[in-house]
Specification:
8 helices, two-stranded parallel ribbon, Rossmann fold
Length: 263
């Protein structure tokens, strides 16, 4: 099996490519972060040499990035260009997966709107979608695009404190990148169900303040709560990938990240 992974060097793409290779499958990596000429908004793909395509590339980051008003237009332009170029070439050509998000049901942001458009387009051209629910498991560079668990772990290990942007009352479902990798692969291997849209989630709601408390217990860091009220997403579960269940608990996943950060 030869897989083209568009967005291969991203937050989820890197561990996903390693997973495919661990299954004995070949990976053709494609990512603008590695080579500027690998711009999925404009390139003409050579699809004849691959069996499957995984469409992960997106202008994305954590909540502090996705909800910034001054970045909405740039996200819109980038992601619409991705959709038009990539899905336009995949129609009728290859078995493929579009990686979506639980934000697709929350159309208050450009991110949610464009992910929903991708889901609709994918269904029309007979592809499959997996919605990612709050991916975590990778220590990222601490910047505007980094995600909440990585931010908390980084702060805890480097400063001994966890400074929260909100009061931590908001609820989330988190999914480890290792579980996501298995979910993407299982979705394209599914030949029994007639569904085109699935979840990849822990299916367990947890408050952000509980995440901070877990990291605090593992590191001894002091939690400094914010005063702003957190935002709860307007999302619902659409059903898991057949034959797939999450295996990495939130506590186990955070322990791995703390160990990485300390190294």
């Amino acid at each position: 099996m030869i897989n083209l992974v568009i967005g291969s060097d991203g937050f989820i793409g890197t561990p996903f490519c390693k997973y495919l290779e661990s299954k004995g499958e070949e990976v053709v990596r494609f990512d603008i972060a590695t080579k500027k000429k690998e711009d999925a908004r404009t390139v003409k793909f050579n699809l004849r040499s691959v069996d499957r395509v995984y469409f992960l590339a997106w202008d994305v980051g954590g909540s502090k990035y996705l909800f910034r008003k001054d970045l909405q237009l740039s996200q819109l332009k980038w992601n619409l260009s991705l959709l038009e170029n990539v899905l336009g070439q995949l129609e009728g050509n290859k078995e493929f997966l579009f990686v979506s998000s639980q934000f697709a049901d929350d159309c208050d942001t450009v991110y949610g709107v464009t992910k929903k458009m991708g889901e609709v387009w994918t269904e029309l051209i007979k592809g499959k979608c997996v919605r990612v629910w709050n991916a975590y498991g990778v220590m990222e560079k601490n910047n505007v695009k980094s995600h909440v668990i990585s931010d908390f772990v980084h702060q805890a290990v480097t400063t001994g404190k966890i400074k929260m942007m909100t009061n931590g009352e908001e609820w989330r479902q988190f999914t480890h990148v290792d579980d996501l990798a298995r979910a993407f692969h299982a979705a394209l291997n599914d030949k029994e169900s007639n569904k085109s849209l699935f979840d990849a989630s822990s299916y367990q709601w947890v408050q952000i303040k509980q995440v901070a408390k877990t990291i605090s217990k593992l590191t001894g860091a002091k939690i400094i709560y914010g005063t702003a009220e957190g935002r709860n997403h307007k999302a619902y579960n659409v059903g898991r990938v057949p034959g797939w269940l999450p295996e990495v608990s939130l506590t186990a996943g955070i322990k791995r990240m703390v160990a990485i950060a300390k190294q």
